[in-house]
Write a structure and sequence with these properties.
MetI-like fold; two-stranded antiparallel ribbon
Length: about 300
């Protein structure tokens, strides 16, 4: 009888703990779900509707809206719109490719340099993080002034002026600005690596580049994969500080800045909103499956911490 009572009490206690865990999980997951509903669905609900609508002016006083898919097809049938979209897409891919091939490898190497506490590693950690502290507008303005006014005096040449090579100047600026956060994240992950793992690898002869490649990089890969996955979204949204630096140079527009400019031109012109809203849905339809595909590939083929 006593054993039966104890068993029932244990079952009740276990059920209570399970209910508590379920309530905690639901409460925890409710926040991101609510955030998504409020700040994506609700905020963009009207834009979703605009994407499938067209304004028709019947007279000076009468305007009606009708359902249509022309807002989507125009981006592929209108030659000038398609050319502008392809140009912006090409620039976004170039910016992303440079970040992928230059910023990420250098960020990992600098992080490893800091992780190994080599000379001046503390200085580099602060120096690279400075752009994240200074307001973007102030830093971009200072950067442009230094290139246009200071470098010609220091080097006696105008070749380093921003206006001489705007694309290179923009690329360097964005690499440096994004460098600090990635280096900090990679280095923090490296500092979490148990010292005994590194010591065991050293005893097995894994030093220098071997230690980085076979020990540190696989254990840092979860953080790296986050940057790689979220980086897909930057292809479609990142403006690369073009508003602050390039004064709307058409040839340098990324997709993010292209959308920004087109959306800005709709202010006070409601009839121009539908094509921009449709383009946003088109890019979303491309970005979402592409992001999941990259995530799947990294999880399946990327190095495991084990």
């Amino acid at each position: 009888m006593l054993n039966s009572t104890n068993t029932n009490q244990n079952i009740k206690r276990k059920n209570k703990m399970q209910r508590g865990s379920t309530i905690f999980y639901v409460a925890l997951m409710a926040f991101p779900v609510l955030q998504f509903i409020l700040f994506y669905i609700v905020v963009n609900l009207k834009s979703f509707g605009y994407a499938f609508m067209e304004q028709i002016k019947i007279s000076d006083t009468e305007i009606i809206w009708r359902a249509t898919f022309e807002n989507f097809t125009r981006w592929f049938t209108n030659a000038s719109e398609l050319e502008a979209l392809l140009s912006a897409s090409k620039m976004s891919l170039i910016y992303y490719g440079i970040n992928l091939l230059v910023s990420i490898p250098l960020g990992l190497l600098f992080s490893y340099y800091i992780f190994k506490k080599m000379p001046a590693s503390g200085f580099f950690r602060i120096f690279l993080f400075i752009p994240s502290i200074i307001p973007a507008a102030a830093f971009a303005l200072t950067y442009k002034i230094v290139l246009n006014d200071v470098t010609p005096l220091l080097f006696g040449s105008a070749n380093l002026r921003f206006d001489a090579h705007p694309f290179a100047a923009i690329v360097f600026y964005n690499l440096y600005v994004s460098f600090g956060t990635s280096v900090l994240m990679y280095a923090n992950k490296m500092f979490d690596i148990p010292p005994e793992i590194v010591e065991a690898a050293t005893l097995d002869g894994a030093t220098g580049i071997k230690e980085f490649w076979f020990v540190v990089l696989p254990l840092t890969f979860p953080t790296l994969s986050v940057f790689l996955v979220t980086g897909i979204a930057t292809i479609f949204t990142n403006q690369y500080n073009l508003f602050l630096l390039a004064n709307d140079t058409v040839e340098l527009r990324s997709l993010g800045y292209f959308l920004y400019v087109r959306a800005g031109k709709t202010v006070g012109h409601e009839q121009d909103i539908p094509p921009v809203a449709a383009l946003g849905l088109i890019l979303t339809a491309i970005a979402v499956p592409l992001t999941y595909l990259v995530k799947y590939g990294l999880e399946k083929f990327g190095p495991k911490e084990e």
